[in-house]
Design goal:
The complex is a heterodimer of chains A (282) and B (271).
Chain A (H helix, E strand, L loop, with lengths): L1 H26 L17 H8 L1 H33 L3 H16 L2 H20 L6 H26 L2 H9 L4 H30 L2 H6 L15 H11 L4 H39 L1
Helix pairs in contact in A: 1-11, 2-11, 3-6, 3-8, 3-10, 4-6, 6-8, 7-8
Chain B lengths: L1 H7 L10 H22 L10 H8 L1 H33 L8 H7 L6 H15 L7 H26 L3 H9 L4 H12 L1 H17 L2 H6 L7 H10 L3 H35 L1
Helix pairs in contact in B: 2-13, 3-13, 4-7, 4-10, 6-7, 7-10, 8-9, 10-13, 12-13
Classes of the chains: A mainly alpha (282), B mainly alpha (271).
């Protein structure tokens, strides 16, 4: 009993400490002061500022575009890679997985620097051009995400019953049909969680973005694509978090809360499905 | 017979599906690292040179930064373990924590933008009177722990779930007091989790530069800052050499943790 009280108090205390900075930002998103800690009366003004701030909206759009495109590319590459490697020789698999593990354990700055030297430094030395653009930013984020897709898909392939694919082939399916109709549905949960992880990593990333970003796809005027991370870092170098970013924090936080609720509902649903299945079997 | 012919004349094989990703890995992971190695050991004329190597080890401020980074990383890892270990223990205990949502809550901050979180911590600390001006070291340490705590909780929680409950009960039944049970049964069983928690915290802390830059207001320079500055100032050879040092340290820590994993497996087999 004592253990329960101590344990729960500890858990909630640490949780509060972890969320405190964000909660403070949220609280002060309803007042139009320059710094947190100064209350200037209740107002929704910062939310209006947020949607009227062009640079924030552009950064938000860039962040989302990069996150979605890089997660899609990561998912396709990583899934195909996992399937291909799963059916290769053991020696090849070991070598492949060693390389796949490098970005997972490597320091972000080392990956970022090596990519930046390849995209910017070398070409500018040889041809006086900087290759950095939307495409290099995309590549940087795929380096970040694809290895995790691979890691998420691999266990699903291992759990799969290998005779199902053989059965499909024996029953006259072409290999690509068997892959599409038999293998893919089996490994779909792994692909999905890999995709979500790739999106999360991309949304959160700052270091790789800062090193690999360049001029945008269409706009020749923009010196470089600015993501939310780059924009915020640029602002907080000079002073406190800009007031309208506090409003943005509140919105992101609400989305995260929705995500957490979604995850727990999904878990409960899965658990229920599991028990009802067991009951039926009994 | 029919299926035999099918496989013999097939151009498409399942293993060929890994070609695109394989090419991607070679182009954007192996080649860039080779470029870094090349730059670390050449000079501006492209000739082999150890000037970056000599420059690093004779520049006291750079070696100093390496030592500071290791020190900050060690302290962060230790603090994270001290806070995270009991936390994971309580979270995994069914008597204390019944719902799995809590563990999601501990990971959820990772969904809020990293730079925004760091800025939020800085602004709160500034409001509380702890800022880069008066206590840069403390501010950096708080920011680091705040950021890396989830990375410690997750692996520890997973190992705690697998603790052998009957061994713990047996120890208690045989007369061990709670402290003895904890240090002689719980801790040894959770070593794999501790090892992976340490690697998940130590390396990122050493190489991160955003947190120290923001929270100490530029007063504390870590290894990552130097790599970034060297690149920004077009000192690619020096930057590459420092990145290479980082890579070597990561490689060593990987080999060390792999060995501990093996021991654990062998120990498990012995049982």
């Amino acid at each position: 009993m004592v253990k329960k009280i101590i344990g729960q108090t500890y858990i909630w205390f640490i949780l509060l400490l972890m969320y405190l900075p964000i909660l403070v930002l949220i609280a002060f998103s309803f007042t139009e002061s320059v710094n947190v800690g100064v209350w200037k009366g209740f107002s929704f003004g910062l939310y209006g500022d947020l949607f009227h701030s062009k640079e924030t909206m552009v950064a938000l759009a860039n962040t989302l575009i990069i996150a979605i495109t890089s997660a899609l590319v990561s998912t396709i590459l990583g899934t195909l890679g996992a399937i291909g490697v799963f059916y290769s020789s053991k020696k090849f698999r070991k070598a492949f997985e060693f390389v796949n593990q490098i970005p997972v354990v490597n320091a972000e700055i080392v990956m970022a620097l090596s990519l930046a030297i390849m995209f910017a430094a070398l070409p500018s030395l040889l041809f006086k051009i900087d290759l950095r653009s939307y495409w290099t930013l995309l590549i940087g984020h795929v380096v970040l995400g694809a290895p995790f897709v691979y890691i998420n898909v691999k266990p699903k392939l291992q759990q799969m019953d290998p005779s199902m694919y053989e059965a499909a082939i024996d029953l006259g399916a072409k290999p690509h049909q068997a892959l599409w109709k038999v293998t893919l549905p089996e490994i779909l949960p792994g692909i999905f969680s890999g995709f979500l992880l790739a999106i999360t990593l991309s949304l959160d990333d700052f270091v790789i973005s800062q090193f690999t970003t360049g001029p945008g796809l269409l706009s020749a005027g923009d010196p470089k694509i600015v993501t939310l991370s780059i924009l915020i870092q640029d602002k907080i170098k000079k002073g406190p978090i800009p007031p309208q970013m506090r409003a943005l924090t509140t919105i992101i936080f609400l989305l995260v809360v929705l995500g957490v609720i979604g995850v727990s509902v999904y878990r409960r649903y899965q658990a229920k499905k599991g028990t009802s299945k067991r009951e039926r079997r009994a | 017979m029919k299926s035999n012919r099918g496989t013999r004349f097939q151009l498409f094989k399942r293993k060929h599906l890994c070609i695109p990703y394989g090419v991607f890995l070679v182009l954007f992971i192996i080649v860039p690292i080779l470029i870094i190695v090349y730059y670390a050991f050449t000079d501006d004329n492209g000739l082999p040179s150890i000037s970056a190597f000599v420059g690093f080890f004779t520049n006291w401020s750079k070696v100093n930064v390496l030592i500071t980074s290791v020190f900050v990383a060690l302290q962060t890892t230790l603090l994270c373990l001290l806070i995270g270990y009991p936390l994971a223990y309580f979270l995994a205990d069914k008597k204390v924590n019944k719902n799995a949502v809590l563990i999601t809550l501990f990971v959820a901050p990772m969904w809020i933008n990293f730079v925004l979180r760091t800025g939020a911590t800085r602004d709160l600390l500034t409001w509380m009177g702890i800022n880069g001006g008066n206590m840069p070291y403390l501010a950096t340490l708080i920011g680091m722990v705040q950021n890396y705590l989830p990375f410690v909780i997750l692996p520890l929680y997973t190992t705690m779930l697998k603790l052998d409950k009957s061994q713990i009960e047996a120890a208690a039944d045989l007369g061990a007091n709670p402290v003895q049970v904890f240090f002689k049964s719980v801790v040894p069983q959770s070593v794999p989790g501790i090892v992976s928690a340490c690697t998940m915290t130590f390396m990122p802390t050493m190489s991160s530069y955003v947190i120290s830059d923001t929270l100490s207001e530029g007063k504390i320079t870590l290894f990552g800052n130097y790599i970034y500055l060297d690149f920004a100032n077009n000192l690619w050879h020096d930057g590459s050499f420092m990145a290479l040092i980082m890579l070597v340290i990561i490689g060593i820590s990987m080999i060390l943790t792999r060995n501990s994993g093996k021991e654990e497996k062998e120990g498990g087999a012995a049982w």
